[in-house]
């Protein structure tokens, strides 16, 4: 296999499978906060600044 053929093969793989992989990662990262078990975690984080008794000044 010549250097040009290797480059062309790697370029085709990156164009197809690389794009598919990046799209999958993008969708997972976008949808991650909307998963069913996340609501409690995010509500706790949003209201934690209003809790009394914290002396972290």
Query: Structural class, from helix and strand content?
Result: mainly alpha
Strand content: under 5%
Largest sheet: none
Integer-rounded radius of gyration:
23 Å
Which H/E pattern describes the elements?
HH
Task: Give the low-confidence spans.
Answer: none
- Tell me the number of strands: 0
Distance between the termini: 65 Å
Shape summary:
rod-shaped
Helical fraction equals 55-70%
Secondary structure tally, helices: 2
Mean pLDDT: 88
Give your account of this protein's structure.
By secondary structure, this protein is mostly helical. Helix content is 67%, strand content 0%. The radius of gyration is 23 Å and the shape is rod-shaped. The N and C termini lie far apart (65 Å). The model has no long low-confidence stretch (mean pLDDT 88).
Topology:
Blueprint: H1 3-31, H2 39-47
What is this entry, summarized?
With 57 residues, the chain is mostly helical. Helices cover 67% and strands 0% of the residues.
What are the defining features of this structure?
57 residues, mainly alpha, rod-shaped
